[in-house]
Amino acid sequence: MKTVNHYHHKKILVLGLAKSGVGAASLLHKLGAFVTVNDYKPLDENPEAQSLLEQGITVICGSHPVALLDEGFEYVVKNPGIPYSNPIVQGAIDRGLPVITEVELAYQISQAPFVAITGTNGKTTTTTLINEIFQAAQKSSLIAGNIGKVSSIVAENAKKDDTIIIELSSFQLMGIEAFRPKIAILTNLYEAHIDYHGTMKDYISAKANITKNQTKEDYFIVNADQEAVMEVAAHSKATIIPFSTTKTLDKGGYVKDGIIYFNEEAIISIADIVLPGAHNLENILSSIIAAKLSGIGNEAIYQVLTTFQGVAHRLQFVGEKHKRRFYNDSKATNILATTKALAAFDQSIVLLAGGLDRGNSFDELIPALTNVKAVVTFGETAEKIDAAAAHAGIKSIVHANNVEDAVPLAFDLSKEGDIILLSPACASWDQYKTFEVRGDIFIEAVHKLK
């Protein structure tokens, strides 16, 4: 960890806990700051807050009193999930206080360089792939951010010869000041999280922060097939390295005659790649580029791409029962992700979908349902997805109470050779704490089938 005196004897408010808040508060305490933590959950239901109390950190729980700002704080470190409309956050901004996220702290103390990945879809797969390639090449890498450990804890223990591979959301990227990755990746941009950001323009602006501090000495890997991504790249000062699944490029990563190339060097045949789904080519291309820019040879890349079957809850193969193949795509929390999952299969599909209702319709899902023979819906959005399925001409539409009940119903609607796919197109929070919990319940229900 770098020696950082910037926060010594500064009064800092850590707003919101969860893992990132605990990590930020503990780190700032070690750096000599006077830390106050404020979390909405009551203290007697809040083991994270209790652990911070034991470290001698001031903790205020049960509400977010705006009067806290009268105590003379010099920084606010915000949990990414807390919106900027929160009265304390808005009050801090009105007073001119810097509002940062824990990722910024991680960067400031880290001795290790960062490879940072953002985008609407593909972040987790790309982050995991890059880490797997680093490991295969015996290069020391650490995963942080939305997957893996809290970034400030990772950065605290990272050494100069490590590389921190970090998945970043738009929420996290809104709260950076100096964060500057050696390699940044923008996988794609589609409409998402408008309930948080307000407009697509503001969402893209948040994503663009991944490159805002980069210079010509850094690399920005971008999706050349998307105009919105290339507009972000046009304002970057980094060295731009594009990738494309549809056209041959003068430099960067592309596909030609069934072969993946980087800067005109053949890397691997698509036929040798295990990871299913045409959409994963974007993730594979950006991962190959990041590896090559990091000095990794083709052998390690080939080794990983011929064995890597995907990450948990993202088109994860669960198993085969009675000649039906089951896939867990619980991480598909929006329509686009489900559309891409459906396009990954040529076989007939029984789709399990539903979850939190964010007020949107599912008309955009209709064109993707061509291979779907039956739908089992659950959660708040069940009736909306039913309507989309009926519009698509699907005859077998069944309601389930939850994911566990949906699995045997889906099996009854299937026949040999079918795919049974959990790809909800919705967040999980109406019935499940996380999409991981939802996916795990699906896996357990599959294994219970007789």
From TrEMBL:
Keyword Cell membrane among record annotations: no
Record-listed E.C. numbers: 6.3.2.9
Alphabetical list of Pfam families matching this protein: Mur_ligase_C, Mur_ligase_M, MurD-like_N
Catalyzed reactions: UDP-N-acetyl-alpha-D-muramoyl-L-alanine + D-glutamate + ATP = UDP-N-acetyl-alpha-D-muramoyl-L-alanyl-D-glutamate + ADP + phosphate + H(+)
Entry binding sites for ATP: 119-125
Leading EC class: ligase
Domain Mur ligase central intervals: 117-291
Pathway it works in: Cell wall biogenesis; peptidoglycan biosynthesis
Record's keyword terms, sorted: ATP-binding, Cell cycle, Cell division, Cell shape, Cell wall biogenesis/degradation, Cytoplasm, Ligase, Nucleotide-binding, Peptidoglycan synthesis
Domain Mur ligase C-terminal: 313-426
Principal location class: cytoplasm
Localization (cell): Cytoplasm
Gene3D superfamilies assigned: Mur ligase, C-terminal domain (3.90.190.20), Mur-like, catalytic domain (3.40.1190.10), NAD(P)-binding Rossmann-like Domain (3.40.50.720)
GO MF annotation terms: UDP-N-acetylmuramoylalanine-D-glutamate ligase activity
InterPro entries according to UniProt: Mur-like_cat_sf, Mur_ligase_C, Mur_ligase_C_dom_sf, Mur_ligase_cen, MurD
Family the UniProt entry places it in: Belongs to the MurCDEF family.
Protein's job: Cell wall formation. Catalyzes the addition of glutamate to the nucleotide precursor UDP-N-acetylmuramoyl-L-alanine (UMA).
UniProt cross-references to HAMAP family, sorted A to Z: MurD
Protein name: UDP-N-acetylmuramoylalanine--D-glutamate ligase
Gene name of the encoded protein: murD
